[in-house]
């Protein structure tokens, strides 16, 4: 086994917590059960990593085997990465084709290898028809850097792909091209979603929540919330705050259902204003000012802003 591969495996082992060591090694499925039983989990991690390297040398581990170990480690600690979401689309009149996962892998790998001489691409199938892709980038003159790879999670039969943030911004267009061509789509765009919680992003884009909810009488919870408040507080302020809070909770339940709410670390609310010329025209011609059908949408947007802020506050409390 090459020294660079041995060092790669050693560093990967050192990243794994001792409490999860055996789980990761079993999921890797490279070492036999008898080899795993020889490992002493009570020794120092440096010594344990060296023991794993010696076992890998007995089986002549390759770079592909070491890359699979790194993928398993990333799957277990996926929250340590920051994930972006990309959405692909078909061209006009294009129908859905039968998806072949092996053809996807072959096409994806060929596109990257044709563009770059030095690149390492590894795949690992996962649950829910997902395929994890690990890309170690190199250049025409340098070998792939195995310690700064890009990870991609693509769900077959869907137009969505999740990628870990990479410092190599110049390779993003090539990555998008490989995803688009291999999955037989026409174009790809980056969505305004980013988080460390891959499962939450998946739940949002796949709409994995229950939208069924009951319209309840808001007067009951208002009476409950009024207990213990300052008598001198204006009742109109109490009523307004309680009604606003009810709307936030109702829209939250309508959007995300009764399932655990997605974790948000950052939310950006953008306001869209009318053009200055249009505003000036309607100010000079008030009788011609139309009743915009999206007035409710604007009001609902302000409530949505409160929903996002409440989610952020709730996540901070949970932490």
TrEMBL record:
Keyword Transferase assigned: no
Keywords per UniProt: Centromere, Chromosome, Nucleus
Compartments (UniProt record): Chromosome, Centromere; Nucleus
Pfam families named in the record: CENP-N (PF05238)
Alphabetized InterPro entries for the sequence: CENP-NAC/CAD_complex, Chl4/mis15/CENP-N
Keyword set includes Chaperone: no
Protein's GO biological process: CENP-A containing chromatin assembly; chromosome segregation
GO cellular component terms listed in the entry, alphabetical order: chromosome, centromeric region; nucleoplasm
Family (UniProt): Belongs to the CENP-N/CHL4 family.
Name of the protein this chain belongs to: Centromere protein N
Organism from which the protein derives: Oryctolagus cuniculus
């Amino acid at each position: 086994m090459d020294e660079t591969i041995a060092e790669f495996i050693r560093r990967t082992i050192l990243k794994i917590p001792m409490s999860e060591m055996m789980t990761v090694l079993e999921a890797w499925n490279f070492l036999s059960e008898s080899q795993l039983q020889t490992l002493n989990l009570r020794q120092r991690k440096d010594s344990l990593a060296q023991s794993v390297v010696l076992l890998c040398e007995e089986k002549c581990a390759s770079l592909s085997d070491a890359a699979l170990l790194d993928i398993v480690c990333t799957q277990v600690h996926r929250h340590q990465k920051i994930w972006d979401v990309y959405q692909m689309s078909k061209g006009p009149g294009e129908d859905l084709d039968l998806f072949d996962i092996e053809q996807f892998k072959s096409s994806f790998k060929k596109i990257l290898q044709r563009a770059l001489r030095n690149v390492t691409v590894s795949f690992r199938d996962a649950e829910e028809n997902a395929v994890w892709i690990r890309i170690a980038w190199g250049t025409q003159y340098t070998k792939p850097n195995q310690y700064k790879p890009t990870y991609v999670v693509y769900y077959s039969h869907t137009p969505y792909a999740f990628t870990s943030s990479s410092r190599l911004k110049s390779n993003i267009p090539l990555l998008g091209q490989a995803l688009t061509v291999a999955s037989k789509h026409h174009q790809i765009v980056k969505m305004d979603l980013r988080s460390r919680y891959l499962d939450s992003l998946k739940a949002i884009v796949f709409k994995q929540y229950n939208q069924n909810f009951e319209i309840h009488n808001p007067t009951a919870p208002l009476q409950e919330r009024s207990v213990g408040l300052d008598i001198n507080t204006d009742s109109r302020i109490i009523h307004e705050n309680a009604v606003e809070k009810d709307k936030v909770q109702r829209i939250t339940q309508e959007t995300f259902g009764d399932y655990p709410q997605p974790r948000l670390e950052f939310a950006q609310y953008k306001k869209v204003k009318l053009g200055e010329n249009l505003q000036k025209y309607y100010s000079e011609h008030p009788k011609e000012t139309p009743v915009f059908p999206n007035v409710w949408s604007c009001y609902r947007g302000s409530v949505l802003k409160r929903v996002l802020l409440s989610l952020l506050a709730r996540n901070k409390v949970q932490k």
